[in-house]
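pasting for the record
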Amino acid sequence: MEYFITGIVFVLIFSLIILIHEGGHFWAARFGKIKVEEFGFGLPPKACGWKNKKSGVLYSLNWIPFGGFVRMLGEDDRDKKAQKDPHAFGNRPLWARIFTVCAGVMMNFLLGWILLTVGYTIGMKPILISPEDVDHAVANGIVLTDDAGVLIAKVVPNSPAEKAGLLSGDFITGIDNIVPVQTAQEFLDAKNRGLRGKEFHLQILRRTYSSTGQIETEKRIVALVPLDEEGNMGIYPSDDPSITAILPVQYAPHKAAWQAAKDVGNLSHYTVVMLGDVVSSLVSKLTVPDGVGGPVAIVKATHHFVSLGEVMEIVKFAALLSISIGVINIMPVPALDGGRLIFLLFEGIFRRKPLPKWEPIIHGVGFILLILFLIAITWKDLTSTISW
């Protein structure tokens, strides 16, 4: 049942975001007097439709329940029937076409801002992007931490530490006869001094916390951890304290709107930086970097937020997804809104349109590259060790 609910929530969130995006294109086109031939809910094949006799717009319901689309007259400059129609896309003023192309992204940002404003007004856990955000939240008592020992930030899969039962989030309080161990460097120094041995006794403190950061359970164990052939345990120790809880914040409406606006800006910047890292990694290493996910990762994230049972967390997730989709769409990549915008800006700068035969070819190549990229990150998602 939980996975069924996840599926429903995923479809609703994704469809809402895409419909809002396409709705932006639709209303901008109508405002710019561009003839809209069809506004589709979902993706073809078409299930049914209704045509508005006054506007001539076909409103269709399609069988694939993801998002929607807007089909405008003359989007393809090679459409000879539309070349003489003054309301065809290519025959409208440049400002109207630019506004129509950008309106979907603008609606994504607007939706994200509205959702975050509502969340902060009602009460929601804040978005923490940078280490500075976390430090500020800790100082203000919004983020609660625990520094009971040296935090295990990560346990390498199939390593001696994992086989010994250690988990990310555990605290190392001692190693062999050294108690307490207070810093990551102290732990590493003790380990390196004992490299002639084949195994170490680690004193481990394992805690669970309530949603308000209170300790619920506490367990102390001694783990016998050997070294692998390279002399490693498979542990990434950290001097940072463990985050035990992030408390919700609530603002007056005007402050909530301002905080939401700042979050939209910060998230947009972070997404651009992340996309730059993705491109760099793909070009130099032919790999998708960690932290980047596709449809499978989005479904898993949806399941995570649904399992929390907090409506505001789902609202926040929808806002983050809408903003991310907006940023990705406006990037200057063929087949995306940003790629189409580049052609329009070219026309505005050089006072002439690019050759009609080249634009669809470039967008077609861009679409193929996007599909290959989607396949790559989906494969990474499916072969990752992230579990449900």
